[in-house]
Amino acid sequence: MTSRVIFPHKVLPYLLLVPQIAITLVFFYWPASQALRQSTLREDPFGLVTTFVGLGNFRQVLSDPDYIGSVQTTIIFSAATALIPMAIALVLAVMADKVIKGRGFYRTLMIWPYAVAPAIAGMLWLFLFNPTIGTFAYMLRRAGYDWDPLLNGNQAMLMIIMAAAWKQISYNFLFFVAGLQAIPKSLLEAAAVDGAREVKRFWTIVFPLLAPTSFFLLVVNTVYAFFDTFGIIHAVTSGGPGKATETLVYKVYNDGFVNLMLGSSAAQSVILMGIVIALTAIQFRYVERKVHYA
Hints:
Blueprint: H1 12-38, E1 41-43, E2 50-52, H2 56-62, H3 65-98, H4 103-111, H5 118-128, H6 135-142, H7 153-181, H8 185-193, H9 198-209, H10 211-228, H11 230-236, H12 248-258, H13 262-285
Antiparallel strand pairs: 1-2
Helix pairs in contact: 1-13, 2-13, 3-7, 3-10, 5-7, 5-11, 7-10, 8-9, 10-13, 12-13
């Protein structure tokens, strides 16, 4: 005979949900609705004259060569920023998992960079690679390489990719370590007894079992690359030189808050939100098919 547990307070669960619902409404749905409304309007910088233009802002944005260039820049930057930290973090997690003495100390050192603010991380890399006073810039010049990210767009892109990837490695490392700890050691021991070498054990046992963790990090890194890297770009290059590092999120800021093109900026934010939602849906629709959960 089983007894049924009944929660006596019928109102309390809804009261506990109120703070989360309020935060979601105020900080997500309300700004999103305002962006949708403003994307259909054209107004002067002071908000004195407002004209309804429908999809005019979207047509103007999608026909702008600078916006198309920002899309291409965002694709390159996001792909590199999402995949590079995962690859490096996986290697570091596997290496740290082998450490017997001082394992906690090594893991703590690897996690520290995640606590650094994006703007601080950007400034750190800017100082290291500054063509005038940077330590690594001096080494590159001594090696005969003409390093100047303030004038060279490709070098500037490389620098913000390195800064953004370095910032995200710690987050990926933390989850990969947790995933490695969840793998039964008996599987690896049995494979070793059967004669499987370490590399083969990794690709046939460890890596497939890390698929759920890798998929989760792919989604998180994609969102990070699109939105959370704004502080790094703003601190390091401000979208330059010559708009070479102006991603979609930075163009929204530049057009809306600097050039005061409010309608165009709102339309860009709506398009950006749609792109991220579509990418996330594609990842869950197609990429997750290859993920096997234990």
